Amino acid sequence: MVAMLFVGLAIFSGLYSTQAMLPTFVDELGFTPTEAALTVSAATGALALCVVPLSILSERFGRGRLLVISAVLATILAFMVPLVGDNVLAIIAIRALQGAVLAGAPAVAMAWLSEELDEDVLPRAMGLYIAGNTLGGLTGRLIPTGLLEFTGWRGALLGAAVVSSFFAVLFIILLPKQRNFQPKQLRFKSEIRAMVNHWRNPQTGLLFVFALLGMGAFVSMYNFITFRLIDRFGLPVTLAGLVFLMYLAGTWSSARVGTIINRYGHGRTFIGSIVLYALGVIMTLGPLPVLLAGMFIFTAGFFAAHSTASGWVGQAAHKDRAEASSMYLFCYYAGSSIIGAISGLVFEATNWAGFIGYISCFTVAVLVIGLWLHKTTTRQAAEAAAVAA
Hints:
single chain, mainly alpha, Growth Hormone, Chain: A
């Protein structure tokens, strides 16, 4: 569990290292907001494309080997991003390659936890892993933003790369051998069949849709909230970047959601989390104190929902769990890439109220998904109890 905490820190501090610097790319390098957002979407899009193939390879060659290779290559590429100059296409290309190699870690981390831990501790372990993801995302955003006060954008990204490398080394030192992994022969048709079967299962299929829509709205909000803070409230870039401290709300909620699930169940926890997520979106229309409170609630609600859904996928998929986890993550990062990129066009074409209306469409959709899942699982539990009686 501790090793997975550090791999989350290493991977996600690298994945989102450019997000807090989007206004800097616009002001200093002449990028459009959409081009700047592509430095994030390219990484998450490449990750989405690679997460399923790498998950399949892990079924044959093992989780640990893939995790280590991913961490090492990703940190090397992190040092290359600030060295390519101010060419937007070169930066986007390196970021895409970085996202591709980063895919190895999230592709198998959840499957590793599902295989190695008992079901009664899995929600807490999954919450700790997601907490590491949030802390990694926080450091990846705050460190370059803070360094902008003393250096240029290149120095800021180099500093972020050093921190990612440190976390990667700790992960490699702490990673234990997996005890329950059983390699299997790779058969393309059987892997495709497993993916299709997970989509045919209404529970896992809707959780995949949540990952797509929920993460798409989440990353879109964080891509452009700093523009709102700078343009509407006049905050300097370094101060606006402190909004990413709200990720600590996600760290707190994801680390504790396992206890709530054990008490109230996946369905109620999921719905409550999404309600907070939606409320936070609406609050960003208010004045600065209300906006900041809304971002706190929005972040806490999203990561609680994400942690709940991550563990729920592992339990709803009674076999081929690695494929189920990788499909969830494919949808998660596809949402980040596709919806995040489209959101740049929406942001440029409308005002903040229009942008929030656009984001709210996604929150309504995921709330409907949560209500359906809760109703279905409650009915299934009642039927199982009746059969047992």
